[in-house]
């Protein structure tokens, strides 16, 4: 049964990730009122000026925006990049960005690793990462969310993934960006029950949701690519999230093999249909 408490979300409805190129041009050409919000990686836009900077500003004035970071390396061994965070704070304010999230992973050591690396699931890592998240929130002057990530190895694992995620959220007192595709991918690759994992997350901390496609490398290996359509088992997991936790803002991630906007909208509209059906079911339950 869905949670019936009123939740405060930074955005509403269904959105897509903004990418440069044809997708951006289509969004600029006309208002697409059936797209409720857009998301960007702030690193890709923080220092952009000129014509592209003006176009980005036009979109941030037209749409609600969230940001999903790529390079903070919240679990990395290098010192937290506080200068980046100060610059990010100004960017968020300038463009009236509704929310900032990062990956619960790391991507740098002496240099950038160009991939999301798994943080060891240990009690020591919980304390380390939680302190860095708290510091990040202090600098930004706002709460952030961390995303449950896909991973392909679990080095030095001492506790279960679900216990690690929940402990970080609790100790850091931060929010969760729920990625249902990552749960599905990890459930195949690491042989656990996706529905059970989802049901053990702290619904009070969820601020919005990601849904995406992936690549079937083998029968027992899925690769989180964001390069294909969402499949039925992932849609079912999103339906479960709505049924358990209530309807939440949901973003369709598509990072490459990006089709025309009209095709992306088919999946956006499917999200909105699931949201409408879930709201109707919840109204019927409470009647």
Give a verbal description of the structure.
This protein has about 290 residues and is an alpha/beta fold. The protein has one domain (about 15-285): Alpha-Beta Barrel (TIM Barrel), CATH 3.20.20.150. About 40% of the residues lie in helices and about 20% in strands. The protein contains nine helices and twelve strands. The chain has helices at about 20-30, 50-60, 80-95, 125-140, 160-170, 180-190, 195-200, 230-245, 260-285, and strands at about 15, 35-40, 65-70, 100-105, 105-110, 110-115, 145, 175-180, 205-210, 215-220, 220-225, 250-255. It has an eight-stranded parallel beta barrel with strand order 1-2-3-4-7-8-9-12, surrounded by four helices. Strand 5 and strand 6 (about 110-115) form a beta hairpin. Helix 4 (about 125-140) runs parallel beside helix 5 and helix 8 (about 230-245) packs parallel to helix 9. The longest helix has 26 residues, at about 260-285. The radius of gyration is 18 Å and the shape is globular. The relative contact order is 0.15.
Overall SS class = alpha/beta
- Share in β-strands: 15-25%
The order of strands across the largest sheet is 1-2-3-4-7-8-9-12
What is the CATH architecture assignment?
Answer: Alpha-Beta Barrel
Quaternary organisation: single chain
Major sheet characteristics? 8 strands, parallel, barrel
Helix content: 40-55%
Give the H and E element order.
EHEHEHEEEHEHEHHEEEHEH
Number of E-state strands: 12
* CATH class placement: Alpha Beta
- The first-to-last residue Cα distance is 14 Å
The CATH superfamily is identified as Divalent-metal-dependent TIM barrel enzymes
How many helical elements? 9
Q: Quick one: overall form?
A: globular
- Please name the CATH topology: TIM Barrel
Rg (C-alpha, Å): 18 Å
Mean of residue pLDDT values: 91
Q: Structurally, how many domains make up the residues?
A: 1
């Amino acid at each position: 049964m869905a949670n019936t408490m009123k939740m405060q979300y930074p955005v509403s409805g269904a959105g897509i990730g903004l990418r440069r190129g044809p997708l951006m041009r289509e969004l600029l050409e006309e208002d697409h009122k059936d797209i409720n919000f857009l998301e960007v990686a702030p690193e890709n836009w923080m220092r952009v000026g000129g014509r592209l900077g003006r176009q980005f500003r036009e979109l941030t004035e037209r749409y609600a925006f969230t940001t999903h970071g790529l390079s903070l390396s919240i679990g990395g061994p290098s010192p937290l990049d506080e200068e980046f965070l100060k610059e990010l704070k100004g960017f968020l304010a300038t463009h009236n960005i509704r929310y900032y999230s990062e990956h619960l992973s790391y991507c740098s050591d002496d240099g950038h690793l160009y991939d999301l690396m798994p943080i060891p699931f240990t009690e020591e890592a919980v304390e380390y990462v939680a302190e860095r998240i708290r510091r990040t929130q202090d600098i930004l002057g706002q709460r952030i969310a961390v995303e449950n990530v896909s991973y392909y190895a679990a080095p030095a694992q001492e506790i279960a993934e679900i216990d690690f995620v929940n402990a970080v959220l609790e100790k850091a007192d931060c929010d969760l960006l729920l990625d249902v595709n990552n749960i599905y991918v990890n459930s195949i690759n690491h042989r656990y029950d996706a529905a059970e994992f989802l049901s053990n997350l702290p619904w009070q901390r969820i601020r919005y949701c990601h849904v995406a496609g992936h690549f079937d490398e083998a029968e027992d290996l899925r690769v989180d690519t964001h390069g294909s359509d969402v499949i039925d088992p992932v849609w079912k997991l999103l339906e479960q999230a709505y049924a358990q936790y209530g309807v939440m803002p949901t973003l369709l991630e598509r990072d490459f093999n990006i089709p025309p906007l009209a095709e992306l909208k088919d999946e956006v509209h499917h999200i909105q249909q699931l949201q409408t059906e879930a709201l109707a079911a919840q109204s019927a339950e409470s009647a």
